[in-house]
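Researcher: Let's do a round of design. I'm pasting the structure tokens now; please hold your answer until I've finished.
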């Protein structure tokens, strides 16, 4: 049987409460005639229904407040985007799902989070100081980044909202280009334009020069999704057909036959049932190529250092049809527990896996291995 060895206890953290409540329209404060025009009731329900510009503005407000909630969760809880998106989605205060398609919620909130450093600079430039409101940052994003292709049928109401927002600003800026005109330092200008910490950009410029750094960061900013079909549990062609039926358009990779490149999708990919059943894995092609370079074979004894959350380990077992033997080492007990759950979900034969919770810099194995995998910075990070 597989074993788990722990070297430190589990720590817990109390999460903060949800900070925002969505704006409400108080119809009873309106003049009677206007109130009757804006609010109607169905014969079968007492739920108010809004029409025309009021409904359009409500949709925009709901979308912006939802994106602000996602950003807030990330900043306060120090979690990734997808987890923050799920928290905001299931918040009892979330009303955006009633008015806005999930695909738009996902893409807008993801774009807001990606532009965080740009928005912080814009806030300081426009207001003269840095605030604590994620709602302000999201509205600045709408001013600087909103475009018709992203919003589709919502664009008229978004455009109208942008015009109102522009009039309320203490300092008028309508585009990212206007912001960049005021920055003389080329490194800082690049950091603001592509939304990265300036110190981070300085490190790469020092080593690569500003031209190659720009190419690297622009590549990192491109949204590209890869799906690995877990052939321990599903067939590649069957999965591709199921995804197409759900509005997920994929293209089979020419190098790795189990990898699918996502071309388009209608709803957030993390809502797919196939993911929750362990039939597909979201894994970048670069990460899969690391395992391919290892060339795992049946009965290989393989040591994976910094192994959690186990995505590469599960691919090793997929490529060897559960016939390799693994020793997985990671320093984090929390991540190791998640790895254990994922490996079971992906159909890995746990009788051929040993898990060790330890710092691989200090841990000393008691046996030898045929192959060793060490991907400390994680290739999937770029």
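Researcher: That's everything. Go ahead.
Model: Designed sequence:
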């Amino acid at each position: 049987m597989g074993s788990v060895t722990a070297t430190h206890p589990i720590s817990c953290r109390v999460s903060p409460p949800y900070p925002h409540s969505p704006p409400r329209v108080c119809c009873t404060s309106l003049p009677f005639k206007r109130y009757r025009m804006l609010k109607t009731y169905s014969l079968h329900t007492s739920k108010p229904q809004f029409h025309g510009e009021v409904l359009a503005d409500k949709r925009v407000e709901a979308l912006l407040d939802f994106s602000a909630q996602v950003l807030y969760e990330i900043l306060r809880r120090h979690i990734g985007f997808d987890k923050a998106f799920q928290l905001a989605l299931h918040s009892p205060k979330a009303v955006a799902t009633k008015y806005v398609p999930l695909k738009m919620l996902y893409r807008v909130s993801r774009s807001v989070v990606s532009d965080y450093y740009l928005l912080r600079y814009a806030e300081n430039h426009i207001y003269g100081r840095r605030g604590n409101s994620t709602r302000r940052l999201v509205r600045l994003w709408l001013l600087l980044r909103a475009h018709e292709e992203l919003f589709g049928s919502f664009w008229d109401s978004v455009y109208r909202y942008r015009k109102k927002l522009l009039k309320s600003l203490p300092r008028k800026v309508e585009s990212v280009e206007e912001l960049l005109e005021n920055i003389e330092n080329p490194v800082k200008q690049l950091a603001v334009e592509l939304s990265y910490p300036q110190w981070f950009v300085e490190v790469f410029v020092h080593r690569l020069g500003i031209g190659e750094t720009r190419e690297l960061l622009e590549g990192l900013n491109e949204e590209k999704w890869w799906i690995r079909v877990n052939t321990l549990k599903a067939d590649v062609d069957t999965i591709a057909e199921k995804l197409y039926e759900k509005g997920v358009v994929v293209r089979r990779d020419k190098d790795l036959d189990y990898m699918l490149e996502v071309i388009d999708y209608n709803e957030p990919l993390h809502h797919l049932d196939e993911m929750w059943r362990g039939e597909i894995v979201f894994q970048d092609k670069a990460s899969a190529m690391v395992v391919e370079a290892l060339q795992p074979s049946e009965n290989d004894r393989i040591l994976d250092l910094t192994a959690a959350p186990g995505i590469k380990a599960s691919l090793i077992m997929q490529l060897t049809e559960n016939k390799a033997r693994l020793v997985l080492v990671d320093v984090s007990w929390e991540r190791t527990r998640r790895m254990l759950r994922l490996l079971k979900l992906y159909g890995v034969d746990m009788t051929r896996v040993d898990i060790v919770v330890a710092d691989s810099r200090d841990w000393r194995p008691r046996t030898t291995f045929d192959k060793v995998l060490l991907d400390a910075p994680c290739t999937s990070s770029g």
